[in-house]
Amino acid sequence: MDFFDRFAVPHPSFLIYASMVGIGLTMLAIVVGITYFKKWGYLWREWITTVDHKRIGIMYLLSALLMLFRGGVDAVMMRYQLSMPENTFLDSQHYNEVFSTHGVVMILFMAMPFIIFFFNYLVPLQIGARDVAFPRLNALSFWLFFMGMGLFNISFIVGGSPDAGWTSYFPLAGNEFSTSVGTNYYMIAIQIAGIGTLMTGINFITTILKMRAPGMKLMKMPMFTWSAFIANVIIVFAFPVLTVLLAMGTMDRLFGTNFFTTDNGGMDMLWANLFWVWGHPEVYILILPAFGLYSEIISTFARRNLYGYKSMVASMVVISLLSFFVWAHHFFTMGQGPLANSIFSITTMAIAVPTGVKIFNWLFTLWKGKIEFTTPMLYSMLFIPLFTLGGVTGVMLAMSAADYQYHNTMFLVAHFHNVIIPGVVYAMLAGLTFYWPKIFGFMLNEKLGKWTAWLLSVGFVLAFIPMYITGLDGQARRMYTYSESTGFSAMNMVSFIGAAIMAIAFVLLVYNIYYSIRYSPRNIGSDPWDARSLEWATHTPVPEYNFAITPQVESTQPFWDSKKNGHQLFKGDIEKIHMPNNSGLPFIMSCIFFVFGFAMIFSIWPLAIITLIGILGCLAYRSFEKDHGRYISVEEIKETETRLRGAKK
Amino acid sequence: MKVDNSLPLEYSTEENNLKILGFWIFIGAEIMLFATLFTAYFTLENRTGNGPTGADIFEIAPVLVETILLLASSFTIGLAIHAMRLNKKKATMGFFIVTLILGAAFLGFEIYEFTHYVHVGAGLQTSAFTAALLTTLGTHGLHVTLGFFWGLFILIQIKKRGLTPETANKSFIFSLYWHFLDIIWIFIFSFIYLKGMM
Amino acid sequence: MKLKMKWILLTMVITISTVLTGCEPLLVLDPKGPQAKTQADDIMLSIWLMLGIVIVVLAILVFVLLKYRASNQPKDYEPPHIEGSPIVEAICIGIPIIIVIFLSIVSVKSNYEVEATPAGYEDQEPLVIYASSSNWKWHFSYPEENIETVNYLYIPADRAIEFKLYSYGPITSFWIPQLGGQKYAMSDMVTTLHLAADAPGEFSGRNANFSGAGFAENTFEVTAMTPADYLDWVEEVHETAPALTEDKFEELLEPGHLGRSTYTGTHLEFAPAPEHDHGSTDNNTNESEHEQHNEHESHDSDEHSEHTNH
């Protein structure tokens, strides 16, 4: 009986039972549905075993949207709980689990896959490549990420969710104070997903360095590709820190080591330090690609080239370097003395300079332009002022003496949502709307899209500006309740209303997708926005080989030049194209990883050992496997090209 | 697949080129991994709690033997790659075998060393210092173990398939990995053992 | 569309400024001690400066959007190709750099201020109070007065207080917003927080760092009183409060919430603060570490004499 007891949720409530039933029924419905429509074979052949960067990208997108929903529900629950003093909607344990998972889900399982979706879909197209450098590795990256995500998300119905915050500071996250398996989920699930992300980083750096179209020098790459390149460099340098950190945390929890414990020499602040050595670059991994997307969108709809290309690149490089030297600003209050605080205070503020350069460059890109307010552009124009507000509050937080008062308060919460939502989430939605026609062959409804953007912004302002105020009034973050006498209730109610409006905006987004699938016109051509870079030069839908003939590049906006200045993109004849074969191995190996992770979380050692051998077996199999890929014949390419050209008009 | 004969075998195809660059980037990530472990180790070095210190438990003899074994294996894998470039299959395999034997011997000594530590009361759970020490050494040891099997698989493939662009590419990448582990060991030797013994 | 945005932001700015300067001041901006005053001044300074930046960006944005919107341009207008100009870029880098340098100077200066005995109180001996947290309570030990309280703090106004912070368990953060910013309390080292109250008054304090299930109610009350009242209180405690025994302290450490309580004697006598941290800075801690573990008794007395010499 003991064996089964640990799978029980430690603090069950009606909500959890309801979601168990809901999840069970949904899974059942999906399985029944796929079986009924006889789609298992299709799923296996076309999606599960695929190594095509575009399809892998779409799977990342679906995961991200699913997690946006999950994290969003968490968020609304929190705001509702705090909307009234002494609210009893959630108890303290449940609230702690909700905010911990909200953070992890939104950063690691929503924002990360969302940007990796853009990496996958866009980078090869923007540089005129056939696929990424290691397509098979790419599939493995995705499936590891997916399994890590799955593992993390079953936590709240099997054994209990992590409850020590998304930062999981020790000793709170140690066995002594966090007794459920929740934090084991945190350690193992993020580890598995993190390995996937690390491989994504290696893959894209190689892709960008080696597979650019002829003539595309580094300084002629589209801005999104540049941002992707830098973000992936940060991934490669930051994620190993996380790997080690989580391994040490796992050992503390499962094997009784003393890295972060309170006795035998353990050092709790080592966790905090290493966490933020990874954690701070992590936020730049998210924001830089977002900047890249804004650059593409603003330049497209201002109908102008991007102002200050070189300084845009330089500023990203500077930001990426600085991002590794600011981690201690997350705990100015640790007592490391005024000198250390001063140094980290200055390096942190210094980041404002390159970021400011980017803001001004976007403003100058609008200068003398011919600005069209499409939905993606609207998001970008809402981004600039709202993000500036988030940025300047960041500078305020960087003043370490004052930070003693901001730290751990709602002011801080307001700040990082103020940079992440207008910065990252808006970019994701803008990018999604912008590239939707390229990916799916029809546009999202513009009117509904603009409503979404406005609603989201109104909701955002209402939800987060009050937090700046309550923070300065002494409301600490992560409190599940407060008393009437604190006077926080009015502002928190406003905040809840804002969160509800944001939720409505997301519902509207879903409705927009539904509406557009049904009513949007097809046959919109391959370049509906009159855009500027290579991804728009190929057909819609994009053929599996991306470009029948490798494009020739001479400037930062080759497609624009080919439209306006008579630059010839595609020279030469069609040749046969080498493509990688599909493989089920990444999926199978990731499934074994899932079971391995599960066994580790619940300390079921025999199963852990068996699955570990299984993983090594997969690696050995891969080592001996002979796979030279396949060729697409010239006739087949010509046929596809004719068909797609026909579809275009 | 296009094979460019003007280049060494391991670089001769587009795919091979990608793999070598990709692996260099992977080594970059590995450097960060070990750097983090070293940072943790140096931070926790003096936090011995109730357990022994480095000076109490380190023994120079086995460590020196391990160092010599690993350095020698790094040299022989270099010779293997040299033989491969001269297209001498037998010699390549021979040096590979020597490398793997040296690697296995290294692992044998390391296992002895670990049992010794546990024996003298420096187990994984003893203190922050022992945890950091054994994790750092263990991570390196794990890399060598994985490398051993990887090398073994490549050896079998060379035997079966001969020196093709693929096997050459794999061997070359393996040699990079093996040299890298050697360099990490030199850091471990100097900054963990020697510094700890002083 | 743009106007709407402008209005939202304007309303926002107005709301913020009314709240900030309004009738009921926010705790952090209503300082009652020199440290909190320094911090509140920094905060207000940066708010105005940053507000200026936001307004400038917003103004440029609105202007550009109005002027260069497509509907405001001739149909055949082709936007020019502009690479970027070094002078403009230099200005865009230069102005932020000047602002950052200015704020850095302010920041560094304040850093040293808040990490030292509060300004205006340097001439007197600070009162040392050990504040340690356990799930989910605060224990305040007054080694000089030989008093220990739980969940409330009496301090003399007009005198510098030196808090020595540490924790039994998770990392917590000791925070009295109106007297000054917070600092972490950790289990393996002692941190120091310098505060002072300018006048008698009642303040709320709390643990600001998430520490598990009982975190929300992990609060305490602070009363600053005149030095005379404070001496009376000390005397009263010595007469009425029970002695703090080791068993009693163990009982207090049990997880949970407790009301206020008062004792004579401090737990520092039998459970000293972890002031010799485990060798994070000096290299010869190995020895001292061993000593600490083997010779608890002698160590205690050492520790004690050290405090009183402060």
Automatic annotation (TrEMBL), chain B:
GO terms for cellular component: plasma membrane. It is found in: Cell membrane. Keywords: Cell membrane, Membrane, Oxidoreductase, Transmembrane, Transmembrane helix. PROSITE patterns: COX3. It catalyses: 2 a quinol + O2 = 2 a quinone + 2 H2O. Residues 1-197 form the Heme-copper oxidase subunit III family profile domain. Its EC number is 1.10.3.-. It is a multi-pass membrane protein. The chain crosses the membrane at residues 21-43, 63-81, 93-112, 132-156, 176-194. One of its GO terms (molecular function) is oxidoreductase activity. One of its GO terms (biological process) is ATP synthesis coupled electron transport. It comes from the Bacteria. NCBIfam families: QoxC (TIGR02897). Catalyzes quinol oxidation with the concomitant reduction of oxygen to water. Belongs to the cytochrome c oxidase subunit 3 family. This is Quinol oxidase subunit 3. It comes from Psychrobacillus psychrodurans. The lineage of its organism: Bacteria, Bacillati, Bacillota, Bacilli, Bacillales.
